[in-house]
Design a protein that fits this description.
The complex is a heterodimer of chains A (83) and B (162). With 83 residues, chain A is α+β, with helices and mostly antiparallel strands. Chain A is built from 3 helices and 5 strands, in the order βαβααβββ. A 5-stranded mixed beta sheet of chain A has the order 2-1-5-3-4. In chain A, β3 and β4 form a beta hairpin. Chain A is globular, with a radius of gyration of 12 Å. Chain B has 162 residues and is α+β, with helices and mostly antiparallel strands. In chain B, the strands form 2 sheets. In chain B, strands 3, 4, 6, 8 and 9 form a 5-stranded antiparallel beta sheet that branches. A 4-stranded mixed beta sheet of chain B has the order 1-5-7-2, with helices on both faces. In chain B, a hairpin with a 2-residue loop joins β3 and β4. The chains are: A alpha+beta (83), B alpha+beta (162). At the A-B interface, loops of A face β4, α3 and β8 of B.
Chain lengths: 83, 162
């Protein structure tokens, strides 16, 4: 799985992109977030307020109930502020 | 057409290119977003725009296709910059051309409203109080909401293509 982080989510995790192999019991975005939060303090901080963090799977916005697998590109970021 | 780029753009050149050779166009409406020098009480000396390469282009194409499904457009253009920008710099250009002004005005307004809440860009402001990520505004979400939900995801065959 390729995971990308943007803006202050990236600053908190300390990485902009990483390749990870997640355990078989990680079925949804929500499972993935719980798994990531246990990795380090930075990840726990990035997801401290989960309601604020937006997620995209394969470059489409999804909810935390969306399925994920090791073949996916998953991105976490704050609400967008372009324009 | 959509473009995501670091470099500046020339408004006159871009708008001319959008209608030159197409005499079915009777109206062309454009909006340019600029970097301001204030954010609340703080002065801004610069702004850095980050984006999600790949998803950004995809999101902008979807926004353009949605405009095309809603109005009889002859051509549309979205240019969004990223990287470091200073007060007065151009950030974004959206434009829509149609036979008549109503569709051009409405589509242009729609393009910038949807872009602001759907395209994956983030602004980091360099202010007198330090670096600050711009937070999303409720007013922007409301501006998007007033256009309603996305239409059925059908190809748009009557308007702009890449």
């Amino acid at each position: 799985m390729k995971i990308l982080y943007f803006a202050w989510v990236r600053e908190k995790t300390g990485v902009s992109a990483e390749e990870v192999t997640v355990p078989a019991d990680i079925a949804t975005v929500s499972d993935l977030v719980d798994w990531l939060k246990k990795r380090s303090g930075g990840y726990a901080q990035a997801f401290a307020d989960e309601a604020v963090v937006r997620v995209a799977v394969n470059q489409e916005y999804v909810s935390v109930a969306h399925a994920v697998s090791n073949e996916d590109e998953v991105a976490f970021f704050p609400p967008v502020t372009g324009g | 057409m959509i473009r995501v780029q670091q470099q500046d753009f020339d408004l006159g050149t871009e708008l001319s290119a959008l209608h030159t050779g197409n005499h079915a166009i009777g109206g062309l409406c454009s909006f340019v977003g600029l970097v301001r020098d204030v954010a609340g009480a703080d002065e801004i000396s610069a702004m850095t725009l980050e984006h999600y390469p790949g998803m950004t282009e995809k999101a902008l194409r979807e926004i353009e296709a949605e405009a095309c499904r809603r109005w009889p457009l002859e051509s549309t253009l979205i240019i969004h910059r990223y990287g470091r920008l200073e007060p007065g710099d151009q950030i974004v250009l959206v434009a829509a051309a149609s036979a008549h002004r109503e569709a051009a005005f409405d589509a242009c307004y729609f393009l910038i409203d949807w872009l602001k809440t759907k395209a994956p860009f983030w602004k980091l402001e360099d202010t007198t109080a330090g670096e600050q990520w711009v937070t999303a505004r409720d007013a922007d979400a409301a501006a998007t909401a007033r256009w309603g939900a996305a239409m059925p995801d059908e190809p748009c065959d009557h308007g702009p293509t890449e």
